[in-house]
Amino acid sequence: MVSLERKQAEQIIQAVGGATNIERVIHCVTRLRFYLVDPSKVDSPRLVAIDGVAGEAFNALLGQYQVVIGPGVHEVYEMVENVLQDATRELDAQPSASGVWQRVKQWVNGIKKRLLGRILVVFSNYLGETTCLPLYEPSAATWWLRT
Predict the structure, then answer these.
(1) Which of 35, 64, 95, 127 has the most CB atoms less than 10 A away?
(2) Residue 135 per-residue DSSP state
(3) Catalytic residue ranges
């Protein structure tokens, strides 16, 4: 039998765009605070119709979609975390060709960045301090000019 909190958590997750739309969730004293991939996927009327949800708001400054629950938010938050973990396990269990392709692309991009950064460092050291070369800093993933 599904508990009331679990059902409420599943409904909230679906109303904010599903588990794949949630980057992170935290809570304060009365609200669940979601960091979403795409805030436009939120179904506000569906969300506020869920039992136990007192309201919703989007804080553009913080980039948070906030769901007002009230003082019992901690129990709902724990259940949301459990549901999200279950959803993640289900997604990880499904074999996906695109997932393999994504890992290969990330691996190749990582090699390109490290290799390009090292080549530029060698050239800048060879040409001396007076030249101006763009360098890639792999640890910070940024480009900067060396003069």
Answers:
(1) 64
(2) E
(3) 28
